[in-house]
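Take a specimen:
=====
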Amino acid sequence: MRRMSVIVTAGVVTAALGAGAVTADGWISRLFGGGGEEAFAECRGGQVAGGAGEIGGPFTLVNAEGETVTDEDVITEPSILYFGYTFCPDVCPLDTARNAAAVDILEERGHSVTPVFISVDPERDTPEVVGNFAANIHPRMIGLTGSPEQVKAASDAYRTFYNVHDAGEDDFYLVDHSTFSYLVLPGHGFVDFFRRDAGPEAMADRVQCFLEAS
């Protein structure tokens, strides 16, 4: 995975990106600084910018069956959202597999959580492609894609970053993207995020804390 550097100067984030994933702590702290519901304070491993209400929100996308769906159709129970792309050579498969493992641990503890994969590469990620990717990761994972405008709106709602390299004639172009996983609860919306370094057991522990607090 190629790396990126982030410089925060006078409230401006300047990113020098390579082909890979955005993980720099400086950008994370800038994006997710302080706030959130008091009931969940003991559960949080990170900080949430200006209150959790500023992250997340309505979206309209397309599911694996080619049906147009909204966030209300998708998030019917606690869900873990991840923004990536199916052609991702390393990061996305590892992150989504980690999320799936956490979901299985939670199921063993009596909690049902839905893993969701949202593509930021709608050019290649058709409903069929994203559906197959999601099904291969976890039988209950929901795969979503959409038009470029729909994908951008969903990404903007969750403050994710992505940048599609100039594809030209190259079918194997890469996409830079952020790698946070987002915990979303019905009735609360977005409540917390997870970095890539969180293992499935630790992730399940934190999610369980939120579920029991809610």
